[in-house]
Amino acid sequence: MYPKNEIMFPHKSVPALRHMRGPEWQALVERVAALPETHEDSLAFCLMMIRVCECLNCDLGSYKASLGCNTCARRAAGSSKATDEMLLAEFERAREDVRRYLTEGILCIPSEEELPMREEEEEYYLLDEAEG
Questions:
Q1: Is the pLDDT assigned to residue 95 strictly greater than 70?
Q2: pLDDT of 64 above 70
Q3: Long-range contacts made by residues 66-75, C-beta under 8 angstroms, separation at least 24?
């Protein structure tokens, strides 16, 4: 019924985000897309997108999951109220979190207030349903 979906934002979805924002974002996406998925910057980018897309709240039976990771991530990146600078800062924070986990085994889970701003999901899902 649904295409093969991941549960969390996968590295293979990074290239789908290339043209979603400004030049600094594009440069980051291109750099991360060229890295192996096990590189700490790839892990950090995926962690950032897991936070932005709220992958931990995704249910595989939901409409959001039926869209797939590429579409969900494109919507989250495109509809975010966060500036490119804010998203790049979130990437840096995610990179610090990955490094801390890899060196010290300390897992950092941000609160809702610490996550980048996003549009309400209902608004853009309703638009999609209207489009057909």
A1: yes
A2: yes
A3: 66/2, 66/5, 67/128, 68/2, 68/3, 68/5, 69/5, 69/6, 69/9, 69/10, 69/13, 70/13, 70/16, 73/9, 73/13, 73/16, 73/17, 73/49, 74/16, 74/17, 74/20, 75/124
